[in-house]
Design goal:
Distance between the termini: 25 Å
Shape: globular
CATH topology: Trna Endonuclease, Chain: A, domain 1
CATH class: Alpha Beta
Radius of gyration: 17 Å
């Protein structure tokens, strides 16, 4: 299995095991959008309100939101370059499920701590422009390897930098699951 396929499988598992049950417990109705739908992954509704939700899952979280600027990047100025999800999705909310290793002073193991953040996309995009993110944060990529079918360019934005953005929320750990142990 390629790394790209493994990442897709991880995101599907997080949707099945965490996001969707969490939303159901909170009384939301969820319908899956077709693959590559510009409205995001899911149509979510509750109490007569409806919005589109995009889900991202990071299994090696380092404190950043990886904002995809270009997907299928070939070379600068090339006609076939495709804008990334941050520009193309017409969703209302981004939900990020992130699992990262954190030191555990009680044992010889690092603990995989899951975290979940939600962000309202309009204010996040406004913040990105107002913060002059294109100048402030480095563009990384392209991801070029034999296992990923497309080359992407992205900007890693520290979560701490966007916490004050309107609509940003960190959800309590108890809402999404329990820590997983992993040997150092």
């Amino acid at each position: 299995m390629s790394q790209f396929d493994a990442d897709l499988a991880f995101e599907a598992r997080m949707n099945r095991d965490h996001f969707l049950p969490w939303l159901a417990r909170k009384g939301y109705t969820v319908e899956k959008h077709p693959k590559k739908d510009p409205r995001g992954d899911f149509l979510v509704s509750k109490d007569g309100k409806i919005w589109n939700l995009e889900v991202k899952a990071e299994k090696n979280y380092h404190g950043n939101l990886a904002i995809e600027i270009w997907s299928n990047f070939i070379e600068e100025g090339h006609d076939l370059n495709s804008p990334g999800w941050f520009e193309t999705l017409n969703d209302d909310t981004l939900l990020l499920y992130a699992v990262g290793l954190e030191p555990n002073s009680q044992s010889k193991y690092d603990i995989k701590i899951p975290k979940m953040f939600s962000m309202t996309m309009g204010p996040l995009r406004d913040w990105y422009r107002e913060a002059n993110a294109e100048q402030q944060y480095s563009l990384l990529g392209p991801h070029v390897n034999d296992t990923q079918p497309n080359n992407t360019l992205f900007r890693p934005i520290p979560i701490d930098d966007i916490k004050e953005c309107e609509g940003f929320r960190q959800h309590p750990l108890s809402a999404i699951g329990t820590p997983l142990g992993k040997p150092k």
